[in-house]
Amino acid sequence: MEIELRPYTPADSRAWDDFVASSRNATFLFRRGYMDYHADRFRDASLMAWKGGALVALLPANVTPDGVLHSHQGLTYGGWILPPAHVDGAGVLDLFKALIEWMRLAGLRELDYKPLPWIYAASPSDEDEYALHRVGAEVSEVNLSSAAPLGEAPRFNTLRRRSLRKALKLPYIAEESRDISAWMKMLEECLSERHGVRPVHSLEEMELLKGRFPENIRFFEVRPMEGGAPLAGVCVYDTGRVVHLQYIATTEVGRQLNLLTPLIYRLMTEVFADRKYLDFGISNEDHGRMLNEGLLRQKFSYGATGVAYRRYRLEIN
Predict the structure, then answer these.
(1) What is the CATH number for 264?
(2) Which of 88, 244, 248, 306 maximizes the CB count within 10 A of its CB?
(3) pTM
(4) Is-contact 251 231, C-beta < 8 A?
């Protein structure tokens, strides 16, 4: 039986989300409620793969006017979403062959593909990277993220442990944020002062997404015990297996007192101790060609080591 690729439509949203929920290599970012919040920015071209009347895979994707199919520009990672069984390496190779033919018929010239980093998969799911090699794709970008194992004593280095002991004695409390607007204000000021940029998400977007995914998107902060504005904080994307620090924000006082250290320690040892990894995110700029070594060392001081975020390019002939 041949694979048939059909474009996703809004009428498919329940089938799509049900498949994501049971997949071996998906996170909540692939649910339509997350993907569609920025539908005005991207022309959706997501695909659903069927075989013998059964849904066997999904591809979150968008297309750009230059004829490139991206998996998906609004997401950090993407790639084929697979079922828990029944689709092996040969099956994924068949998916790519079907995709290449579909792209030819659609007049698309190039595939831009971002696999799911291995730490996020419920079980090994690197069949797509093998298939990409087989069909002649080339690595177009590699970024280096840093992840720390959870469920064990944190592997802080000596300096980080010293900072933790000092910070725990200070009159500040680390807890889940009650006021997202104050938290986002801190983030905006931090990014503006230190990097001259704005957050990717606006306050309105974060409120929308948190409303849709209250168990997955959470904000934590450190503030004075007697009350007041937050001095340091993180926005967490919890996939159930991996906790990703989507945003990290500090004030000048928060940086001087190392207030992020006790907050991250609490997340690792209490709030998310039953997860597998804490992902601090990439330390790159310029599509992986520049490594921020200072930022990388900070993450390494928490016991976080390297996870590659790869990207592939395939020309459609």
Answers:
(1) 3.40.630.30
(2) 244
(3) 0.94
(4) yes
- State the number of CA atoms in the 13 A half-sphere of 78 facing the CB: 23
Alpha carbons within 13 A on the beta-carbon side of 79: 30
Residue 217 located in a structural domain: yes
Rounded to an integer, what distance in angstroms lies between the CA atom of residue 78 and that of residue 114?
5
Amino acid at 210: K
Q: Based on the domain organization, do 115 and 236 belong to the same domain?
A: no
Digit-coded pLDDT (tens) for 182-235: 999 999 999 888 878 888 889 999 999 999 999 999 999 999 998 889 999 999
- Residues of the domain holding 121: 3-143+310-315
